[in-house]
Amino acid sequence: MKEAEPEGQKGFVLVVVAIVLIILVGFVALGVDTGALYSARTSAQEVADAAALAGAFTYINDPANPSPGTLATDNALQVALNNTILGRAIAWSVAPVTSLLQPRVERPAFELLLASLLGRAAP
Fold this sequence. Notes:
Elements: H1 12-61, H2 68-81, E1 91-97, E2 100-106, H3 113-118
Antiparallel strand pairs: 1-2
Helix pairs in contact: 1-2
């Protein structure tokens, strides 16, 4: 024998499915954002490595240059500016110290999926 459904429980499954879907979309957005941030970090490291190698190669290629630090910085800057992080231009600074070239690459701001769903600005 089938029991009668109480009036208050009609539509319960619909509400639960809606809540679960919202939570699922949130976790998917979090996963996509985490992947994008890791990808941006890896790209920034690759750009910094390429710039440092370009600067170091300047010292090897032209050791008799009277100002190798300036030339190395210029070459590193040129290599860095030819690259992008997730399709956006990078912020670049370099700290030349006698024979040490320390490139610093900062990732550009980009929209995160979860942040835009929550109505927050990009970091």
